[in-house]
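re: that complex we talked abt at group meeting.

here r the seqs, copy pasted straight from the sheet so there may be weird spacing, ignore it
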Amino acid sequence: MRIIGVDCGAEKTGYGVIDTDGSRHQLVSAGIVRTNTAEAFEKRLNVIADGLRDVLGAFQPGVMAVEEVFHSINTKSALKLAHVRGVAFLVAAQAGLSVSEYSPLSVKMSVVGYGRAEKQQVQMMVLSLLGVSQKFESFDATDALAVAICHGTQANSLLLSGTRA
Amino acid sequence: MRIIGVDCGAEKTGYGVIDTDGSRHQLVSAGIVRTNTAEAFEKRLNVIADGLRDVLGAFQPGVMAVEEVFHSINTKSALKLAHVRGVAFLVAAQAGLSVSEYSPLSVKMSVVGYGRAEKQQVQMMVLSLLGVSQKFESFDATDALAVAICHGTQANSLLLSGTRA
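got the structure back, here u go
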């Protein structure tokens, strides 16, 4: 199963593509789509859409996984983030992918086994699970890989328990 | 100047296209894009994107106007709405249009002259300003026309005062 995880953000949207059988995960590609904060918001959304579309085209994942909006961040930031999520969802649908959402707690539990893990711990575990020695430029790429791993793990346990993911 | 106003909503997204010189407004087209609530959210966003893209293609407005997110609605609804707005902004950018945002207060002041006007009053004034006798099927179309009229009026007064809209 090939999964793309997306960590939405207006400035930087991280993506991480993995191949997984649910327990062993392999890195395919990861990176960020960066936007110019001096540009109009609609143009920045277009840059994000183009960037994600290129990644889907290049690596052909079968499903997209994203984190749910984190309600404890302030409302203005959450609303901005939701615009970017709308764009990511749209790009997925246009490519025929379904989108699965996971709470930040589920993602951390899947990857670190501890729901209140720090970004550094998530990064370390993501790199370890993927057998990658080099750190990524940004936490956004690692966070995207984390949600992809979360989907891989949970989809696998649903399959094992006889429920379709 | 040809303006499209968009009233974003996950179930029904209203649109209204007008021609205006800033004081006289003429209806070009108005309607709603309806989505199936039984479908996955990403598919519904795709339906909205396709619908708006068709309207832009058919009527070729030069600018898009939308209402700012109304903070007093509950957070969950506001976040859902923001996903749809992200899609509307993206469709605008892909068609080369800029997006102007107006507070609900500005829209009501522009159209009714009273910031706490009810939906029925907005509808009546929109129909009157456009010289249209027949009510639209949905308030969403009228609300979209209202924000288009608001942009037309404000862009005109900015032009008159020597500031570029």
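couple things i noticed - Residues 11 and 35 of chain B are 5 Å apart (CA to CA). The mean pLDDT of chain B is 92.
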